[in-house]
Design brief:
Strand order of the largest sheet: 2-3-4-1-5
Shape: elongated
Radius of gyration: 21 Å
Helix content: 40-55%
Oligomer: single chain
Distance between the termini: 38 Å
Structural class: alpha/beta
Largest sheet: 5 strands, parallel
Length: 259
């Protein structure tokens, strides 16, 4: 099959402040995965792994990349099977007929998916890929990759790269593994501006949110919402750590999830 490289659109333009998705650190991680695949050689592997703990904003970054790079995007869940994986891929890839996936055997659906990925030359992002590992669907995705030679980005939690080493043939098709970054103070600033630019938050408060979140963008976001709701109710024009005081906030568990 001929070379099937992703079209690289050039440097991503920053999202405007106040947009629906703030330009956080892990957007750059997903972008790096897309650009590495775009620049790969004809004989280089075509899959990338992006790994990190839950709450680090990987799915939000993937949603941004979907829009920015016209990527296909599929999020798996605990109900995925070999058939449902192919059915959902058919829908994501626009192979539906009157809103329904094409009929046929599993082999037929796999061939349709692979052909579309090869022809479209658009990256495919599969989120929550841990479910594919748990359901023993890794080699099904391997077969789709082998048939299409598409650029595929697999997103999962921090133990996923080690788990994938069980499948040597699959692991050999991974070009690189990237790791999501913990939420930073600058991320917190951007999130705060995107959520409510009318209520400035001091860096001491934002730094506290980053500290207690222990890397989780989600927890920083949840706490920002709580602060802004409180500020609106009490008529604040700004907020710092002293003003917030000892009001409760979400804190991440000190114990890390077992791998």
């Amino acid at each position: 099959m001929t070379e099937n490289r992703v079209h690289r659109e050039g440097p991503a333009s920053p999202l405007p402040e106040g947009g629906q998705i703030a330009p956080l650190t892990n957007i750059a991680v997903i972008e790096q995965a897309i650009f590495q695949l775009a620049d790969r050689g004809a004989t280089d592997p075509g899959m990338m792994v992006v790994s990190g703990p839950s709450g680090y904003g990987k799915s939000v970054a993937a949603a941004w990349a979907k829009a920015r790079h016209r990527a296909y995007y599929l999020q798996l869940d605990d109900f995925v099977t070999r058939k449902s994986l192919l059915v959902q891929l058919c829908l994501v890839l626009g192979l539906s007929v009157d809103g329904k996936p094409p009929k046929g055997t599993i082999q037929h659906l796999a061939e349709r998916v692979a052909a579309q990925l090869h022809q479209a030359r658009r990256p495919l992002i599969i989120d929550e890929f841990d479910f594919a590992i748990d359901k023993n669907l890794v080699m099904a995705v391997f077969s789709i990759y082998e048939m299409s030679r598409a650029s595929i980005i697999l997103i999962g939690e921090e133990a996923m790269p080690a788990k994938l080493q069980k499948w040597e043939k699959f692991d050999g098709r991974v070009l690189d593994t990237l790791y999501a970054e913990p939420v930073s103070l600058e991320d917190a600033r951007r999130l705060a501006r995107a959520k409510n630019a009318q209520l400035p938050l001091a860096d001491d408060l934002l730094a506290h949110l980053v500290k207690i979140a222990r890397g989780s963008v989600r927890r920083v976001s949840n706490n920002l919402r709580k602060i802004f709701e409180t500020g609106a109710a009490e008529g604040w024009d700004h907020c710092d750590l002293a003003r917030w005081g000892d009001r409760p906030l979400q804190q991440a568990d000190v114990k890390r999830r077992a791998s």
